[in-house]
Amino acid sequence: MLYEEARRVTIPLHVLLQWDDEGNDRQASLDLFDAFGSPEKTLHANMGGHTGVPEFEGAAAAQFFNRHLK
After folding, report:
1. Can you give the residue range of the structural domain that contains 48?
2. pTM of the complete model
3. How many domains in the chain?
């Protein structure tokens, strides 16, 4: 059911995945990303756990929002 719902999501997506996130299964996260129906989707994957998001990812997210919300 979750993947069927994900296929209906067609807006641009910017997804951040921490490779060693203790709270999210990596393969399940990749499968969900793959299921999204958006023709424009970006996956940013970084080493580290849930709280190890690199600072530069904030700038990448801001660029995404600027590009799509202006």
Report:
1. 2-69
2. 0.87
3. 1
